[in-house]
Each structure stands twice: as C-alpha cells, then as structure tokens.
What does this fold into?
Amino acid sequence: METFWFIAIAIVLAVFFVLDGYDFGAGIIHLFLAKTESDKEVIAKSAGLFWDSNEVWLVAAGGMLFMAFPTFYASVFSGFYLPLIIVLWLIIFRAIGLEFRGQFNFQMWKDIWDKSFGVSSLLLALFFGIALGNIVRGVNLGGVENGVSIYEGHYFFLPLWDSSFSPLSETPGIIDWFTIIIGLISVVTLAIHGANWIILKTNSSINDNLKNVIFKLNIALAALTLFSLVVWKTVNPNSLDNFAHKPYLLIFPIIYLTGLVGLFFIKKLKKDIHGFALSTLLILGGITSSLASLFPVILPSVNSINEPLTIYNTASSEYGLSVALTWGILGFILIFIYMIVQKRLMAGKIDKMDYGH
Amino acid sequence: MEDMIFYDRLQFAFTITFHYIFPQLTMGLSLLIVYFKWKYLRNKIEKYNDAAKFFMKIFAINFTMGVVTGIPMEFQFGTNWAKFSELTGGIIGQTLAMEGMFSFFLESSFLALFIFGEKLMGQKLHLLTGFLVFLGSWASGWFILATNAWMQHPVGYEILDNGKFVLENFSALFGNPWLLPAFLHNQLASVVTSSFVVASIGAFYVLREKQIEHGKLFLKTGVIFGLVSSVLVAFPTGDWNAKNVAQYQPAAFAAMEGIFETENAGAEIVLIGQPNMVEKKLDNKIAVPNILSFLTYQEWHKQIPGMDKFKKEDLPDNIPALYYSYHIMVGLGTVFMGIMALAVFFLWRKKLYKAKGLLWTIMFLVPFPYIANLTGWYVAELGRQPYLVYGLLRTVDGISPTVSSGNTLFTLLGFVALYMLLGLLFLILVGKTINQGPKPQTH
It folds into this structure.
C-alpha cells in the first residue's frame, strides 16, 4: 500500500513538472529571448492561460503527500523552511506577473510584470532542482551535533548554505555545489521544455531560432548530466545500488536518455509535438530515475545516528491508505476526463484563437 | 517557546484572513452566475448573459487570488505546524487531499472553459460548465469545513501510543455532527457576501447613471438573494451552530456569550457589554434575562455553565477577541437583514432605483459582509483554543520544533509586504473591471 501511494505521488509530481514545467520554461525563454512586444505577449499568454490549472497538480501532490506520508511532510516542510517559503513567494510573483501584464497598456507596467514572470520562473526552476538535489543527497536528520541527536528522530533544519559549500560536509546546507548542478540541470531541462511548448503553441517570430537554442541547451544538458552522474556516486555512495539490484528500474534512465538523444535531432523533427514529447520524456525520466534510485528511502540521512526516512516509517495507517485508494481511483478517473475535455477544446495555436477577456 | 507560538499563530491568522476574502466571494458568486446564466437560457434576454459573463470576470480575478493565497495555507501545515501535521496528517490529510482531487481540479478545469468556451460549446454546455464551477467551489468548502469540523469536534479516530491520530472510521469524517451546520452557515454567508457585492455594483451603476439597465438587474438580484441568504444565515443555520458550540465546546460558548459566572436560573442574553478580564465581569452591560437559555435549549430556566465552571487552562486564551468577534458577527447579521428587507420592500413598491440614500448605503455596505464572515471564522477558531484538536491536542504542542521564532517573524513580514502588494493590485483590477462594466460603452 505504501508503495502504491509512493508511485501515485511520484506520478502526480511528474505530471506537475511536465505541465507547470513548460510554463516555467516559457518564462525562462521569455526572459532571455523574447525581444519584440508581440513575442513577449504571445509567450506570456502561452503560459498565462494554463498556469493555474497546472498548479493544481502541485496542490494535489501536496495534499496526497500530507495524507499518505505525514511524517515526511512535516519533517521536510519544516526542515526546508526558508527555501519553501521563498518558493511560495516566487509562485505568487510569477502568477501575478502573468495575470497582470496584459491589464494595462503602457510599457513600464508590462516590463515590470515581464521581469517578474521571467525572473521568478528562472528562480523557481533553479530552486526545484536544488530541492531534488537535497533529497537525493540526504540531510542531517535529527540535527545531530557532536554525536547527539538534538531533535527527535526525523526533525531537522537546514541553513541556506554551509560555509564549506560542500555536499560532503556533516551539516550540508540547502545550497552547495552538488545541489547547484542539479538546479542547473533543472533550469536547462525546463528551458528546453518551455521552448518546445512555445514552438507547439504559438506562431512567435522566434520559433525558428528556438530550435537552435534547444540544440545548444541540449549539449549543455548532456554535459551537466554526465558530470552529475560522476559526482552523484561521491555524494551519496548508495545512489546507484538500486539500479544494480533491480535492473528493471533502468527503464527510467533509459526514458531520460531517449529524450536527451532525441532532442539532438530537433531540427529534423517533422511535427512540433514531437519536440514537446521528447522534452516530456526528459522530465519524466529525470524525476522517476531520481526517485527510483532512492526507493524505498524518501529522504536519506547523512549522519549515522538517525535512520533515513522511508515510505514505511513515515506512512499513515494501513486503513487510511486503503480508504484513500478507493476515492483516489475515482478522483483520478474524473481528473482524466476533465483533462481530455479541456485539452481537446483548447488545442491548437493560441494566437489564432479568440481568448481575449 | 512563547514567541514561537505567538508568531506561528499570527502568521496563520494573517494569511488565512487574507485568503478568506477571496473564496467567500467566489463560492457565493458562482451560485449567482449560474442563476444569471440559467435565466438567460429561459428568457433569452441578453443582459442576463452579460451579467453572467461580467461576474465571471470578477470571479476569475478572485479565483486567481484565492489560488495564490491558498497554496501558502497548505504549505504552512508542514512548515509552521509540523508536529500537528505529523500527528494528524493521517486524518485531516484525507479531507485536504480530497479537496485537491475532487474540487480544485473540477473548478479550475471548467473555469477556463466557462471563460473562453461560450462560442465553442453553445449555451447549454456553457451553463453546464458554469454549474460545474459552482459545484467545484462548493465541494471545496465542504472538504475544508470537514477538515475544520474534525479539529473542532474530532470523530472517527484512534490515538496510538506515540500520540499519532489514526483514522478508524472514514465515513465518520463526513457524518460529523459539527460539519453540516457549519457548512450550510458558511456557504450561506458566502452568498450574503456575493449578493452584497452584486447589489453594490448595481447601486454604483444606477447612481452613476451608466450601464443603468445592467445596474438595475444587479440591484434587484442582489437584494433578493441578499435578503434570503442573510435570513438563512441567522435562522436556522446560525442558531444550529450556536447549539453545537453550547453542546460540544461549552467553555467557548460561555466566552462567546460573555457569561463569566454561572447563574442559578436561566442565562441572560448580552446585547452590549465589554469584557473586563481583571474583575471577571462585563462592563456597561445591557442584557435580557433568560433569553439565552431559551434560544439554546428552548427552556427559559435552564442553567448554562459560565466561565467559572472551567479550569483556566481550558478556557479560550483570548476571551475579549472571541466575545467581540461573536457580537460583531451577530450584530452585522442583524443589520444586513434590516437593510435588505428595506431594499426588497422598496423594490416591491418600485421605488428602489430612485431611493438615493438607500442606494448609497447599499454601495458602501460592501466591506461589512466580509467583516462579518471573517469575524465568524474567528469565532470558530478562537473558540477552539487552546486546542488544535479540541480537547485532545493543544496548540502549543503542534508547532514545528526546529523552526525558530526569528524565521517565522521574517516570513510573516514577507507575507505582509507581499499581500499588501497583492491587495493593491487586486483593487486596481477589480476597479477597472467594474468601471468598464458588463457592456463597455463606446461613446
């Protein structure tokens, strides 16, 4: 039952990153590449029309995590207190940037909200990557000092960074050189995804150029991925054991690789949707590989005193989980119906549609 | 520890107060939008369709604000109230996760279709999407109040040796005797807010002599919905809730009503008075004997326990705030009934659109239903103190053990600054929408 909920939450999180990922990515592209007013407008619109129905997946993932693994929820949310609150503020800034840019027709107003949308998208992509980096690296669970645990079992509090800036320190901070690499991978991946989304949904004048951009970003991504794999083993020595013991889990890295390799052929792709599908594979593969490498651990411990958090020692009662399974299945069926209805009605390039308020 | 709990509570109170400005409007407004759209399908008079679309714009702005201020609420359970989340997540996680799955998806998927899809779908399907948005927003209220009802009156649980609450009976969460009255009271109160907003915008148009036809429609609909809902908020749902508090949270009931000492015979109802916490009595009191006993138990001489019957550590920790919140809510509710009854009387006599004084009153009354709803929420939450889960888990035992008060103060200041900006932008945007009106005039 715990495994089922772990998989269900992993799917919801992955869907969140695929969906909201493209509007984060659109924000990053918007920040660096959109020069003319018409490009700025159409790119902002390609994110603005969809962000709130995408963000619902984050709320759902949060709710499910709270229900199924309350100890994990409590521990991680209070442990990563400051970065999470900053993430919240960024989410709010991004949303108001998107909602308000078109409300008044003078340049300074638009410029402010364009920057707000772009910068917060970039920082959010970075922070989500850093968060993933923290989870695969592990934290000082229990807040051990001088060999004694200062909080019961699973509570901790991470500073933003430690003076050594190293993931190998006994008390690593949230930002160190390893988590920054994962953060950069996240930024590059989502930028690629966002660029594919813009190509798919708009007739923006930068669309032709975007294929070159994706190609270059993909080279950077390949290099970063290779480098991160080399250091990952140093940071968390058990990181690849799961794949050695259960070879079928290799499907997830293969999904990631398919996306990565496929995107080198971006300029030859016949349809716009193919590019988007490849970057979707990239995100799905990346998230599932990270989680599969940890399973059944969900937060490794970097000290030897405290047990890591696993899906077993953080889960709700068996009865609660099985009741939730019953309504959860119904919920998922409904959600898929809504999604199909909505996507069918809102398919196609957005600039040809009459979406004016 | 003292200031840790203080800042955690202050932050939650601040963020939920700001958040609750938005859903209380969207829940009620979705009902009025469905009404306008349904009327249009029946009578094919264009202005009803304009009204539905106009209020959908206002709805959309409020919905966005509700989403962005709602995500922090979910986060705070983990960030600031980690112990509480760990101990009770297995139970209230159920209702919160259901809110996300069943109502939030429904509302946000069909909101986009309602806003953009009229031409694509045709009128009947358009009404249906509007109805689904309404269903989603009311379901959201249902699950949130189910969560709150469990904290007010815990049911269907079992406590393990390690202090964790685990679910024993899922259906009890929704059969909770606290839930249905609280839900109906809350939803009707949100209809009050939205009716006042609709009537207020109508009064504005009529007084400004622009968009008059739409203005009259808004006024008429607003005051009729406003009268019906403000009566229903008081009787039977408000009454029903008060009886629940008297039964399940007698200490909170005594504090709400300002009963410091138990009287031997029936309890009086306090109309006006100021709690004096030093001398443990009400100053400047105006009260009517025996009415409270009658209202609560339908017996004139039934004894109601006062605050002297409870241990100090079981009494709500801010009695004056609870007492005033309750009296402000009830007092405003009474005023609303009076003004709306007068407006409906004028409407019936066909004098409403010319009654300038009344129209000005209706126009400027709009903040007060918000105040009444917020104070109503405070009554529920302050009354539950000093517990997070009534009688079982004290508030002080629910905060995050690792987060220092400095961190919470810093993030509180950040929220204050950010929400001030949000509030300003919100007012600008709503003001602009109202100024343009349902049919922007081109002359």
Chain A has twelve helices and four strands. The radius of gyration of chain A is 21 Å. Residues 2-33 of chain A form the longest helix (32 residues).
